[in-house]
Amino acid sequence: MAEPLLGDLSVTGRQGIRFPEPDVPLASLPEGLRRTDLPLPELSEIDVVRHYTRLSQLNYSIDTGFYPLGSCTMKYNPRINEETARLPGFTGLHPLQPVETAQGALALMFTMQEWLREIAGFAAVTLQPAAGAQGELTGVLIIRAYHQSHGDTKRDKVLIPDSAHGTNPATSAMSGLRVVELKSDARGNVDLAALQAECDDTLAGLMLTNPNTLGLFDEHVEEVIRLVHQAGGLVYGDGANLNALLGIVRPGDLGFDVMHFNLHKTFSTPHGGGGPGSGPVGVCNRLADFLPAPLVTIIEEGTDEEPPLYGYATPPQSIGRVKAFNGHFGMIVRAFTYIVMHGPEGLRKISEYAVLNANYLMAKIMHVYHVPYARPSGGDRTCMHEFVAEGKFDDVPDIRALDIAKRLMDYKFHPPTNYFPLIVHEALMIEPTETESKEVLDAFAEALLKIAEEAHTNPDLLKSAPHITPIGRVDDVKAAKELVLCCGVEAVNFYPKTG
Amino acid sequence: MNNPVDLKYTQNDEWVRVEGKVGTIGITDYAQSQLSDIVFVEVVVSQGEPVSKKDTAATVESVKAAADVYTPISGKVVSVNEDLPLAPETINSDPYGAAWLLKIEMSDPAELNTLMDAAAYDQYCQEREH
Amino acid sequence: MISTARKGNISSMFIPHTDTDREAMLKVVGVPRLEDLFRDVPEKYRFPKLDLPSALTEMEAHAELQTIAAANDSADDLACFLGAGAYHHYVPAAVDAILRRGEFFTAYTPYQPEVSQGTLQAIFEYQSLVAALTGMEVSNASHYDGATAVAEAVNMAYANFRGKRNKVILSPTLHPQYRAVVRTYTKGTPITLVGDEKTQTTPDDLLSLLDLNTALVVVQYPDFFGRVYDYTRLSEAVHGVGALLAIAVNPIALGILKTPGDMGADIVTGEGQPLGIPLSFGGPYLGLFATRQEYVRKMSGRLAGETVDFRSGERAYTLTLTAREQHIRRDKATSNICSNQGLMTLASGVYMSLLGKHGLRQVAELCYHKAHYAADQITKLEGFSLAFSDPFFNEFAVKCPAPVLDINDHLLEHGILGGYDLGQDYPELEDTMLLAVTEMNTRDEIEGLVEALSEVAHG
After folding, report:
1. Measured between CB atoms, does C297 come within 8 Å of chain B?
2. What architecture does CATH give domain C79-89+356-457?
3. Does C328 contact chain B (CB < 8 Å)?
4. For residue B129, what is the nearest residue in chain A, using CA coordinates?
5. Quick one: which of A91, A414, B96, C198 could link to C278 by a disulfide (CB 3.0–4.6 Å)?
6. At what angle do helices C117-134 and A45-56 cross, to 10 degrees?
7. Which chains lie within 8 Å of chain B at 3 or more CB pairs, if any?
8. How far does A294 lie from chain C, in Å, by closest CA?
């Protein structure tokens, strides 16, 4: 039985929360501007709480099980982060209040900027971007601004590997740059010859995810970066896969000029059913002047007795604002708490165990699920924090990654990312993260192997999966053709369904 | 794939049927099978509008993909298929017939010489299936 | 106050592996040590020493964060009369109770509908509530905030005209930060932004800028100075040249005021923070975005749509029109946006459900009456006068007898967070303060503000 909608539960006259009567004289409402009707539902608090509680019970979540989604880094979301983010000294702060009254928050933000700089090896960091995609936009706009400031207006080309996340080309196009796709070589690295061929004076930059979406650390990353720099371009790092590199290597040291962080991936802030994220951006020295404004900074140095006075500054050649106010402060507090609790040794452990978990899982299933860019263990290359397997069997052509994904749900696992990256057929991108135990990984491997068996002996189980989830597969075609995006939420006077 | 022999084809999976000075344009069987169930189609040029080769003439959307349709020929738009947007699935069932997108009065018939014939297009499609 | 010199233990409580686990796993992988997994990393950069403070246990971390939080004066400590795009409203206890359910906040984007109906139906209901509130036909699953929502509206209008119209008119009383964000977003595009070079005083002043090259006109409601106008006539003029009208709203005002949908808006954006989301020093907030059915395919951002579950035949929800989005269209996508504000849409959905038809009107009325009472009392003081005579909702601009900075210093001494200094964005509005009043300001607080201001009047 589907959970009723708000409009179904609404009863005329109900109200979930009441407010005090006005304690001031009433002013007359503006002529001609009054609303005639407010078609919102009427529910008591118990109705609302039950409705949303029941909805929550239809969800899979990290709190209920394993989520091996490649490039999403679905690690455990610490509860302590939820406590610290909710401290009234933080939640009650208005973004525009005088800086003297918000020194705690500003100190936290400044320190966070410093810590992210240190972790990734950059000269300066902005915390303003709201999400990874916005971080990318910020980074690409900075690259563009840099070239413009040097009069290099011919540089409008951005190189993007074929394994890249869709936000990379979308971001470049949004910034008025043209995208040229770079193919990967047979070992999953950037093809150096292809790169060389594109290194000319129209090159603005290269957007590189390293390790890439195949979970592989580029074997020639230094050469790749050198070639781009030599041609006058800049290198943008997509930091989605930073979970493999904490305390292992700093992208800034390798030569990346600008990189975005995903606090909601690497730094444990919750995914919230789709957001909010947070996408700080780090830059090298020569790009620091272009960071978005405002940047949190020390406006008066501290002394032995007095702490510094924190405030805002506008970088001299700033690209401007990318978001109103300060960025996602609530997420920054969570990530800050996370770093406080890990320290340098803890951060390194995160990456060590994230990479161990991925390699372990890969080793357990690769004899059945082909990993096209795999590096066999013990001697040759290994994967980093994730790997991509093919969700298909040559002798059962009818079974595809989609079917395997759906059947995994019957084993109480969330499916891995599928059909990405585009360069692997029937891709299953698997990232376990460091917070999963050996027991969970063993169970997941076992499920995958069982499903492989079922594909051969009883494929219909996969085709008709999932069976035990709250609902079965949905009609995507109907959803797109007969667009129903809203419904009436009132108890009476339903709006006709639009679509 | 039974690609009609009387049509010309492009690498972007458009077809052209030539009748006198008028070229009719649509997308091929290969294209519709790659896109799968089409849910939306919109011709973005209007009757009487001049178009140049490679201009975007239409957009087609399925659940899993969206594609732009480019005109392989230059000229003036003489007719647009008004029925198609109401039944986008026609592209899946009848890509070469009822699912024509628009008709253009050609300004430069020599452009047709750069297009593939049915045999070449068949080969091209086979090469793509690796 | 952030201690950097201390001795801590290696805290890896979120990593469950024992030494035995690790050894067993390394054996299966076939390498002797963890370090051997990183041979692809250039040796000279491998395993850097990070200059960060050592780890703290949860107990210690909690204490540290409490110290940092205590070094702030929040709206809980002060009487808050500051608005300018972020407002101090009451957040009902049930909102956070729902948000703290792990099934909501630790869930991922609902790409697998079979196990995400909770998130998907909540998004669908949020879309429905926003459409109902704004008087529009469809809403998306949100943008990052009110500012980026306007930038996305500009994108959408430009895409709608396929690049044939490239002028966008921005009202000067659209929030200065929103206009700044739009400028950043339109760098590198052929879009020209006009209308806000100098401060005009009414919507009619924008009419002279309309032409056949105009793609979009953007106004705010209530505007940045708190004033409310009926934009119906403007919308007729905008449509007369074939352009689109976007109205950026404060959703609380829509508890009692005529909707932008009724005025003829084609796009409605807004900052949803007042709907159950705390001030939180600026974020995360919520970008409202609604439009008419005919433009739905041009709209960026996630969309939850209704469909059926094949297994039961019953109503179910899924993300739809995903072909527009970056993960499929890549460089042809209208926008690069990937995430929505997820948990924030849930917060506002719960808020709107709890308050409902009567509660939201109540809150809006309280804001309105209290603001008008405050304005009445303040303008009785010598040297203080309203900067504008237009109707307003809960924010108003006051011409003051002294610089706003000085007045606010004085107010702080009385435990009051004063209003916004309009002179920083509008040079001709020096010594003019923008004050906001909400249901959270008691009559005592308002009278306290008036009394503190009267001390300024007397020098």
Report:
1. yes
2. Alpha-Beta Complex (3.90)
3. yes
4. A425
5. A91
6. 140
7. A, C
8. 11
Architecture of domain C93-350 in CATH? 3-Layer(aba) Sandwich (3.40)
Question: Sheet of A281-283: strands edge to edge?
Answer: A124-126, A281-283, A258-260, A234-238, A203-209, A157-161, A178-182
- DSSP annotation of A448 reads H
Taking contacts as CB-CB distances below 8 angstroms, the residues of chain C near B65 are: 323, 328
All chains having 3 or more CB pairs closer than 8 angstroms to chain C: A, B
The answer to whether residues C98 and C346 touch, using CB atoms and an 8 Å cutoff, is yes
d(CA A136, CA A161): 15
Could you report the predicted ipTM of this complex, rounded to two decimals? Answer: 0.95
Q: What pLDDT digit, counting tens, does each position of C202-240 carry?
A: 778 889 999 999 999 999 999 999 999 999 999 999 999
- The closest alpha carbon to B69, from B110, B38, B93, belongs to B38
Buried b (16+ CB within 10 A) or exposed e, A81-115: bbbbbbbebbbbbbbbbbeebbbbbbbbbbbbbbb
CB contacts, 8 Å: A474 with chain B? none
Q: What is the pTM of this model?
A: 0.94
Q: How many Cα atoms are found within 13 Å in the side-chain-facing hemisphere of C88?
A: 30
**Looking at chain A, which subunits does it touch, using at least 3 CB pairs closer than 8 Å as the criterion?**
B, C
pLDDT tens, position by position, A97-140: 999 999 999 999 999 999 999 999 999 999 999 999 999 999 99
Chain A positions touching B37 (Cβ under 8 A) are 477
- Domain boundary assignment for chain C: 79-89+356-457, 93-350
**CA distances (Å), origin A222, targets A215, A218, A253, A285, C116:** 18, 9, 10, 19, 42
- Cite the DSSP H helix spans in C286-403: 326-329, 343-379
Instruction: Count the helices and strands in chain C (H runs, E runs).
Output: 14, 15
In chain A, which residues have their Cβ closer than 8 Å to the Cβ of C117?
3, 55, 58-59, 470-471
Domain B8-109+119-125 fold: OB fold (Dihydrolipoamide Acetyltransferase, E2P) (2.40.50)
Amino acid at C112: Q
**Which of A33, A42, A34, A58 is closest to A7 using CA atoms?**
A42
Q: Which residues of C touch A326 (CB under 8 A)?
A: 281-283
Say which residue the tokens 């004033």 belong to: C227
Using CB atoms, pick whichever of C113, C321, C354 lies closest to residue A480: C321
Q: Where are the domains of chain B?
A: 8-109+119-125
Interface test with A, best of C339, C390, C411, C421 (most A CBs within 10 A): C339
Between chains, do C332 and B63 touch, taking CB under 8 Å as contact?
no
Q: Is C39 on the interface with B (CB under 8 A)?
A: no
How does DSSP assign A66-96, residue by residue?
---BTTT------HHHHHHHT-HHHHT--TT
- The domain spans of chain A are 1-20+35-58+470-499, 67-462
In the CATH hierarchy, which fold is given to the domain comprising A67-462?
Aspartate Aminotransferase; domain 2 (3.40.640)
Task: Dig out the tokens for B27 from the structure.
Answer: 């997308």
Rounded CA-CA distance A41/A39 in Å is 7
pLDDT at B115 over 70: yes
